[in-house]
């Protein structure tokens, strides 16, 4: 028998299917059984010609590229590197079945490793994923394979918040044994200097981003700082920027002081009604100034 290629066997299967569809139902069953029996005999002859017994394999195992495991060849004799998605394949050089790949002869130009269900997949760090499969390349990212590519979302929060009186120095640090960094509170002494004592914060805080000494790798993009939230005294302004080590858009805040708030004069001791009226005029009560308040003094009881 003249040995035929595996591609020819695939063509025979296609032609068998087309012929079978044109036959009546009773003849179709009989035709199928004959074709399958003939194909089994053909494949047995081909395998007998390609596979030698006993096996003769190289004593040195092949060095496979990343993501390609060692598997037995089509004869079940020698260990070869499994072919990956899109690579050529044949009877001896098999595809990686652990990734759901088969040798696809539909192109007519030889076999190519492809998914069995013809779905598009994606390869990340040498590993193949099916279309629609969700995976985690690291503990900080969760990705989804879609249409030959993949999209990822962070699993670690990037929350920011202003310092509070009970936590004036929030810092984000890496905790041993945990994937995501956590916020901790650095206490301060009576003079406002930071101390080395750290205490975990049970809730997320807003982080502050001082100007980095080394520019970030991404192209700067963001909005301008907003107006200060307070017309006097300490307030804060916000902006959206990608200037962080992850180069992701986030809301950043900073403290701002437009001008000091005017101090309220201390209230004078108890005065009479006439003196109280004079005091109100001196303080500007009734002029509509929002920072002033009337000074009430006790008056003599009326008969």
Automatic annotation (TrEMBL):
<dbReference type="GO" id="GO:0031012">
    <property type="term" value="C:extracellular matrix"/>
</dbReference>
<feature type="region of interest" description="Disordered">
    <location>
        <begin position="267"/>
        <end position="303"/>
    </location>
</feature>
<keyword id="KW-0964">Secreted</keyword>
<dbReference type="InterPro" id="IPR001007">
    <property type="entry name" value="VWF_dom"/>
</dbReference>
<dbReference type="GO" id="GO:0007165">
    <property type="term" value="P:signal transduction"/>
</dbReference>
<feature type="domain" description="VWFC">
    <location>
        <begin position="120"/>
        <end position="186"/>
    </location>
</feature>
<dbReference type="GO" id="GO:0005178">
    <property type="term" value="F:integrin binding"/>
</dbReference>
<protein>
    <submittedName>
        <fullName>Cellular communication network factor 5</fullName>
    </submittedName>
</protein>
<dbReference type="Pfam" id="PF00219">
    <property type="entry name" value="IGFBP"/>
</dbReference>
<feature type="domain" description="IGFBP N-terminal">
    <location>
        <begin position="47"/>
        <end position="116"/>
    </location>
</feature>
<dbReference type="Pfam" id="PF19035">
    <property type="entry name" value="TSP1_CCN"/>
</dbReference>
<dbReference type="InterPro" id="IPR036383">
    <property type="entry name" value="TSP1_rpt_sf"/>
</dbReference>
<keyword id="KW-0732">Signal</keyword>
<dbReference type="InterPro" id="IPR043973">
    <property type="entry name" value="TSP1_CCN"/>
</dbReference>
<dbReference type="InterPro" id="IPR000884">
    <property type="entry name" value="TSP1_rpt"/>
</dbReference>
<dbReference type="GO" id="GO:0007155">
    <property type="term" value="P:cell adhesion"/>
</dbReference>
<dbReference type="GO" id="GO:0045597">
    <property type="term" value="P:positive regulation of cell differentiation"/>
</dbReference>
<dbReference type="Pfam" id="PF00093">
    <property type="entry name" value="VWC"/>
</dbReference>
<comment type="similarity">
    <text>Belongs to the CCN family.</text>
</comment>
<keyword id="KW-1015">Disulfide bond</keyword>
<dbReference type="InterPro" id="IPR009030">
    <property type="entry name" value="Growth_fac_rcpt_cys_sf"/>
</dbReference>
<dbReference type="GO" id="GO:0008201">
    <property type="term" value="F:heparin binding"/>
</dbReference>
<dbReference type="InterPro" id="IPR050941">
    <property type="entry name" value="CCN"/>
</dbReference>
<dbReference type="InterPro" id="IPR017891">
    <property type="entry name" value="Insulin_GF-bd_Cys-rich_CS"/>
</dbReference>
<dbReference type="GO" id="GO:0005615">
    <property type="term" value="C:extracellular space"/>
</dbReference>
<dbReference type="InterPro" id="IPR000867">
    <property type="entry name" value="IGFBP-like"/>
</dbReference>
């Amino acid at each position: 028998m003249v040995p035929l290629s595996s591609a020819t066997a695939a063509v025979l299967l296609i032609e068998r299917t087309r012929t079978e569809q044109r036959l009546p139902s009773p003849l179709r069953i009989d035709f199928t059984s004959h074709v399958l029996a003939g194909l089994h005999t053909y494949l047995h002859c081909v395998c007998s010609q390609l596979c030698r017994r006993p096996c003769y394999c190289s004593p040195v195992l092949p060095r496979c590229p990343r993501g390609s495991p060692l598997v037995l060849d089509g004869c079940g004799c020698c260990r070869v590197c499994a072919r990956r998605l899109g690579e050529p394949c044949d009877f001896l050089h098999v595809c990686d079945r652990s990734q759901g790949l088969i040798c696809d002869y539909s192109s007519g130009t030889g076999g190519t490793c492809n998914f069995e269900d013809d779905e598009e997949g994606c390869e990340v760090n040498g590993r193949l994923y099916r279309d629609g499969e969700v995976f985690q390349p690291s503990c900080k990212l969760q990705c989804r394979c879609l249409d030959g590519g993949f999209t990822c979302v962070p699993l670690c929060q990037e929350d920011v918040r202003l310092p509070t009186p009970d936590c004036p120095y929030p810092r984000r640090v890496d905790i041993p044994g945990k994937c995501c960094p956590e916020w901790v509170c650095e206490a301060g002494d009576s003079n406002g200097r930071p101390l080395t004592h750290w205490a975990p914060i049970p809730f997320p805080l807003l982080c502050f981003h001082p100007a980095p000494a080394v520019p970030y790798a991404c192209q700067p993009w963001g909005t301008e700082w907003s107006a200060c939230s307070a017309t006097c005294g300490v307030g804060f302004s916000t902006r959206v920027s990608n200037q962080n080590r992850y180069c992701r858009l986030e809301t950043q805040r900073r403290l701002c002081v437009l001008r000091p708030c005017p101090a309220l004069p201390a209230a004078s001791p108890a005065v009479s009604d006439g003196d109280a009226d004079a005091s109100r005029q001196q303080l500007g009560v009734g002029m509509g100034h929002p920072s002033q308040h009337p000074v009430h003094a006790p008056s003599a009881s009326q008969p």
